[in-house]
Amino acid sequence: MWKSLYQGSVILITSVIFFNDSFANIVTITFSALICIELLNVFSEINKINYKMIFVLVAAAIVYFLSIVLFKNYFDISYISPSFGAKILMIVGIAWLPLFLVE
After folding, report:
1. Which distant-in-sequence residues (6+ apart) come within 8 Å of 96 by Cβ?
2. How much is the pTM?
3. Cα distance between residue 93 and residue 89, in whole Å
4. d(C-alpha 9, C-alpha 18), whole Å
5. Which of 3, 36, 2, 33 is nearest to 15 (CA)?
């Protein structure tokens, strides 16, 4: 529970810090960061990766991209850019990496 509380807090706080000019796009930002962190959490807890896990990872990525495309009322596609991706990676690193290194 504490891990999830930490990661959720970091996602929201760093989203506001890195994207201070785009509160309207907070759903796109936090959803993207959360999906990446959860996939990393799953893969950091397993001992042996097999082809089924890779298949599920690819399927999750496809569902993520489809959800952004299909739910245009909730996500602003025009906002997604290389800068957006870099900031999401920083948020993911800040939220996931310290806990991974401690384990």
Report:
1. 7, 36, 37, 40, 41, 44
2. 0.83
3. 6
4. 14
5. 33
